[in-house]
Amino acid sequence: MQAVIVLVLVGVFAFWLVTVWRVKKRKQSLLIIKAQSKQETIPAVEQAFVATIAQLNMERDVLSSLAQSQDVAKIWGVRVLAFEFECEVSPNFEKHLTQFSELLEAQLKTQKVAIPAFKSFALTDIWLRDGRLHFDVAENKNEDTAAYIRDVKRVD
C-alpha cells in the first residue's frame, strides 16, 4: 500500500515537473518570437515613417525622433506581435493626420515587398495626444496577430 502511495506521489511530481518545464519553454519561445518581431518591425516602421514624412514634406512638423514606446500585447494578449510608436509633432500636424495615416500604411505595405522575410505590416491605430503622435503597427506573423488586426479594423 505504501509503495502505491509513493508511486502515485512520484507520478504526480513528475507530471508537475513536466508541466512546469513545458510552460517555461513556451514562455521562452514566445519571448524569442516577440524579440525577433520587434527587430523586424522597428527598422521597417522607421523606413516607412521617414519616407512618409519626406513624401508629405513635413520634416519641420516632426519635433522629435520616432521612439518605440510600448508593447501592444500588454493590452491585447501575449501572442500579438504589435508595437506602439510615438514622436513629438507640431500643432500643425493634426490637419494632416488622415493623409499621413494613409501614406504610412501604404509605405508599410511596400516594406513587406522590399523585405520578403516579413509577412506583412499593418497600421492598426493612430492618434494624437498632448502634442505627440502615437501609432500601432502589427507584424502579421501568427493567428493571434491576424485576429487582432481583424478586430481593430472591425471597430474602425
Layout of helices and strands, plus pairs?
Elements: H1 2-55, E1 67-71, H2 73-76, E2 82-88, H3 97-114, E3 121-129, E4 132-139, H4 143-155
Supply database-style keywords.
Threonyl-tRNA Synthetase, Chain A, domain 2; 57% helix
Task: Describe the overall structure.
The chain is α+β, with helices and mostly antiparallel strands. The protein contains four helices and four strands. The protein has a four-stranded antiparallel β-sheet with strand order 1-2-4-3. Strand 3 (121-129) and strand 4 (132-139) form a beta hairpin. The mean pLDDT is 87.
CATH architecture: 2-Layer Sandwich
How many DSSP helices? 4
Task: Please give the number of β-strands.
Answer: 4
Mean pLDDT: 87
How many angstroms does the end-to-end distance come to?
Answer: 65 Å
Secondary-structure content class? alpha+beta
Uncertain segments are none
Strand content: 15-25%
Q: Would you give the CATH topology?
A: Threonyl-tRNA Synthetase, Chain A, domain 2
Q: Which CATH top level class fits?
A: Alpha Beta
Shape label: elongated
What's the arrangement of strands in the largest beta sheet? 1-2-4-3
The number of distinct structural domains comes to 1
**Relative helix content:** 55-70%
Largest beta sheet, briefly? 4 strands, antiparallel
Computed over alpha carbons, the radius of gyration is: 22 Å
Task: Give the H and E element order.
Answer: HEHEHEEH
